Amino acid sequence: MILHLATFRWKDDVTAADVAELTDALRDMAAGIPELRSYVCGESLRLRPGGADFGVAAIVADEDGLNAYLDSAAHAAVYERLLGRMIAERAAVQLPVESSAWL
Amino acid sequence: MILHLATFRWKDDVTAADVAELTDALRDMAAGIPELRSYVCGESLRLRPGGADFGVAAIVADEDGLNAYLDSAAHAAVYERLLGRMIAERAAVQLPVESSAWL
């Protein structure tokens, strides 16, 4: 399976309300994408210095599942409506994980 | 529980051998830190554009566990010997996850 990790640093004008709305929208999106075996997202707890404001961790079965998720109309809709204009910086990686992986 | 996510972009002079050595060192480190419930790290599979080269995902019980991991002598040793000189950019976040979370 594949763990997709993404960290985001917001633009200065992003508000707490924007982040709350985005978090709900991403969770609703994830609930409707069957390829997502597991999905967590949210504002960082900021327990350590890290330079990022928000994170996403998603588990999919394989590359096709990853593309189905990231290329979905639902993901595009959240990006266009909210996420796209909020991002100052984004970093993403994919790591292989065991089939027992769950978030 | 807490999911700690970190993404790294390397400096231009970092080699594949550096990354392989770092990956082994981080995994050995993680095996010796009881507070780490779950730990995965590695070079990104680069399946999607993302701007980062390497990722870490670690699950700990709580903030004390997170600090025990990140402030451990073992983590400091890997940072000083390898990781510190490789980093061009790092982004890290912490997200709350269910107790069933496992990587």
UniProtKB/TrEMBL annotation, chains A, B:
<dbReference type="InterPro" id="IPR011008">
    <property type="entry name" value="Dimeric_a/b-barrel"/>
</dbReference>
<feature type="domain" description="Stress-response A/B barrel">
    <location>
        <begin position="2"/>
        <end position="95"/>
    </location>
</feature>
<dbReference type="Pfam" id="PF07876">
    <property type="entry name" value="Dabb"/>
</dbReference>
<dbReference type="InterPro" id="IPR013097">
    <property type="entry name" value="Dabb"/>
</dbReference>
<protein>
    <submittedName>
        <fullName>Dabb family protein</fullName>
    </submittedName>
</protein>
